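Structural biology now treats backbone shape like a language. To illustrate, our science desk offers a sequence and the tokens encoding its fold:
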Amino acid sequence: MIAKAAIRAEAERLHAAFVAAGAVPVEADILLPAETLLDLYGEDIRARAYVTADPMAGEMMLRPDFTVPVVQAHMAGGADPARYAYLGEVFRRQEHLDGRAREYLQVGYEVFDRAAPQADAEVFALFAGLLADLDLRPATGDIGILMAAVKGLSTTDRRRQALLRHIWRPRRFRALLDRFAGRAPMPPARAQLLDRLAADAPAALIAAAGPLVGLRSAEDIAARAEALIEDARAPAIAAPEAALLYDLLSLEAPSRAALAHLRGIAPLLPAIGPAVETFAARLDALAARGVDVDRLPFEASHGRTTLEYYDGFVFTFAAADPALPPVASGGRYDALTAVLGQGRSIPAVGGIIRPSLVARLRGAV
């Protein structure tokens, strides 16, 4: 009880700081329609959220985070510009018994502002100031640069879409890139399937397999078979282009040095040019807010294991203990506003802090 009271007090202190920075306090339902979250993240979200059923409302999920309901509420009629602050419990299933909480308080700050293109710097600097006494390790990245690099690859649209879909699954992404670049052999099961497809028409193979089981129609299966055949015929991603993408994936350096490196490869990978200049403008905005960007860590792959709505700047603040989750995290999610705004969109960036970890690091619990 004492620990919970200390965590609640820390959460209220952080929430008050966000309100003092200009945010409007908002609330969000604890039970959220599962359909929206499944549409956004696919079935993977089931492994991370608590799912239940309501006889009237259908399948529901205990709130896994605040960003989705806050964006929904804003796109349904929020002011423009707007800054929001929230405080409440979130619920996450844990695959491993590593002591991580399944229910914990989260405090957040979200910015929707067309006239503030460098709101990234506003949010990061605000968080850095609130957590300055904890000696946390900041880390930053930019999913937008990696997405731009993938979109600019000289390969089939189907392969580009597959890589984009798995950006937030680093192992799967790397396996696909290795295969598309010709650096990994085709899995035996896939090779065997392609041999069978080459031996006869998909329709004949479907007919020979017997009655259909499941939701896919014969037409769906045939279309998938044709897609597999087409992909197998596609040439490998050119070695120089693949090498640049591998280089980008492994880039870790202080931010100014990372910018110099990215500007060096941009002429060879021109699709990343605009995203790199956005990165440069962000560094200037961060420096203007007192952030030492000459030392600020940058990792091009940072943020690729979080929820899948970030599409630009990402950041975390982590404690020295690697077993602890990030004390704070956030980033830009412009595309999410378009998805939840039914075509309307607005630049958006925000972040969350775990008050339980802040209280622990301050010795309050």
